[in-house]
Specification:
This protein is α/β, with parallel strands linked by helices. The chain contains 10 helices and 6 strands; from the N terminus they run H-E-H-E-H-H-H-E-H-H-E-H-E-H-E-H. The chain has helices at about 5-10, 35-50, 65-70, 70-80, 90-95, 110-115, 120-125, 145-160, 175, 200-220; strands spanning about 25-30, 50-55, 95-100, 130-140, 165, 185. Strands 1, 2, 3, 4, 5 and 6 form a 6-stranded parallel β-sheet that branches. Helix 2 crosses helix 10. The longest helix is centred in the C-terminal third of the chain and has 21 residues, at about 200-220. It is globular. Belongs to the WrbA family. InterPro entries: Flavodoxin/NO_synth (IPR008254), Flavoprotein-like_sf (IPR029039), Flavoprotein_WrbA-like (IPR010089), FMN_Rdtase-like_dom (IPR005025). It is an enzyme of class 1 (oxidoreductase).
Length: about 220
Amino acid sequence: MGFLSKLFGTSTEKEIETMSYVKLAVIYYSMGGTNYQLSKWAEEGAKEAGAEVRVLKVPELAPQSVIEGNPVWKAHVEATKDVPEVKLDDLEWADAIIFSVPTRFGNMPAQMKQFLDTTGGLWFNGKLVNKVVSAMTSAQNPHGGQEQTILSLYTSMYHWGAIVAAPGYTDPVTFGAGGNPYGTSVTVGQDGKMIEDVQAAVKHQAKRTVTVAEWVKKANQ
């Protein structure tokens, strides 16, 4: 048996079973559409694993005048106007949560941080304990703070008492997507297009998150 077979097993899908009762919230912030697309791929992967999925955006904080001055941003806001904004009830509903955000100076965007700062009531009442979480990100260059942005999200999750389900190197698709073990990350060129092919890695990460959530949920029954 070769190294990769030992590391990943003979079948990359062998651990994925139908998980019809796992509820996943995919929560994102996106200006140009990259993290929205990552979220949609995560939705596809999770549904393939049998999960019930809600794709939700965090509220926008930027003034409308600023958005109007950026054609790409304006077009994306219009294209996703029907995507529901996340509510605290969605966090309580979910067994698992995947976050997807662009990096801002090696940190999460203010829009995501503002939403997380509203979760104090749920945290205080123990409603976020044992939520299974994972995160994805994007930046305009491969060393633009992608890993640190994901870790900044996980820091908040540790305070929740959540369980982080990072992809690690649990499937060869991680290497093809750039090899980030903390969560899928992608580089976006000046043309707004993704440079790495990360679709398979995102779907694997979503399936892994749902799988771990199923384990946790069964253990707590």
